[in-house]
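Sequence in, structure out. Go.
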Amino acid sequence: MDSSRTEQLQYAAVTFSPVQGFIEKTRKLRDLYGASIILSYLSQQIVQQADLKGYQVISPGLPNLSRGMPNRILLQHNTAVFDTEELGEWVQQTLLTAWRKICDQCRDWIVEHLPQFTYHWDRDWELWRSHTWEIFWGAGDSISSAMNDLEHQKLSRNWTGINWIGESSSLTGADAIAWPGLGDPNRNPKKINWTEEDRKIKEFYRCLAFVLDGESPNQPKEKEPEGKYIDQNEKLSIPELIKRLVTLPEVADKIQPPKNQHKIQRAGSEKEDDDDDEDLLPKELRSQGFTDLKRRPQDNPNGENGQWTGWFMGDGDQVGPFLKGLTTDSKVATFSHEMREWGKRFIKEFNHKNIGRVVYAGGDDFFGLIYNQDFPKKSKDSIALEQVLEWLKTLDHDWKKGKPDWIKKVNLSVGFVWAAPGVPQRDVLQHCREAEKRSKSEGRDRLTIRILFNNGQYVQWTTPWKYLGILDNYKDRNGGKNWNHIYSDLEQLKSRHALGLAYKNTEFNPDPQEITDDRKAVREFLNCYFYSYREDLKAVEKELFKDPNKKDYESAQAMISWIDDLITVGWYLLKNSEN
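Output:
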């Protein structure tokens, strides 16, 4: 990547890593916000520097909008030839300078607000300042050749591991706990008093938590911090601590450059984009933090009473291959612009609904949650599930609304988790990722609804978007909407091992021919409660389960499974809609 090339190069593709790992190591909503802020800021700095270096920014669209800035950047140089070695140097220098600024501001804030500690951790901070990110770039005489060159360069990794002495963080367990004595030259692992060291670490984090809560660190021993930024007993690594601190307005303001410092003209546009929000820290996080998200009452934080919440994560299907098929500057620029415009509009419209909050929406990927914002002060109930389902039914349509037909070919896969109040945030986030992956693995263009209980068990249903409306067509034996009727019948059939509905029981292995014969009967059973869906069920079976690569009984079993999951999830979601 560091060799200079002299052929006719016009396009450059730039990215950095590890992006997915940086996001997936998060365990709390604040961590996700922090990771999103950091990634957006790093990409923004590269884009701004590229503009100053004479490159035209083809992608990402809305280059002046910092929030949700994608990390894959496509550039076109104003001349027909540019030096790839020089390209790599300024990209690397730009990213490292931006990242080091973040690290320094976070470290300095801690030292300034907790001067009573003696700090020996500068070497460890320096290691993270220098070895957190890898930068990759490609170049070519066309967009496709630049992208292909980038993918080729990414095959060569130069990862550096950071060693340490002592315990690892309480979140991921992958890196050392950040505390003032981390790099003490006198620390000998053979002579360390681990009990005393653990006491010092706890004292540091207790003081840090109080300061982040806006209080003095010198509090009575019996008083516990509120935990707005750091919970009791949490011990974070340096990168985990950075993710928390960048969500502090005082730190974010020192990182973020002044507004209107440098405006970039969008590719293919003679005017600047209007209504660009350059504030690095999201407005809702700056104004209220997470004070409006209370999953359990303050007086019973460990009990099961509380509100159920919905967590959704999704992104566009096969965006990478789709982008590779776009060979003109205008189409790539239009695609990126449309994706980012959707993300900006999605955040604004979702916030206006007052049903929750979007954590990030970078264009083709997004994450957020739905909850009762009046809980528990004005209301003791969870948000109405009917309201949640109505929103889910509009999501796929909203994704495609207003986009050109050729962009509508990019479908949407989403995982949605309806979580009980007692499930830890880190577990809910992991289930949300798994639900999204299931939508992808089951064929894409799908929604997976997973209902997660306090004991960690769950039920789920994965369906293409166009069949989500089947939930509206249910009618019980009395012509009403009481889902207890169909669910009771389902449980009776499963207890008798009838119609192949006990396939999930590992001790029950029905004959393949029986499963094939039962498929039609199960379909007819469902049709008793969904009168107008007979033809739709045939379409479901043909589209989802007529796989030439599978044996017929396997397709039949998959169809029975889909119906089983539909009834189970439908009952849990709608059993109280009409008794």
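Check: Residues 292-465 form a domain with the Alpha-Beta Plaits fold (CATH 3.30.70.270). The CA atoms of residues 136 and 155 lie 10 Å apart.
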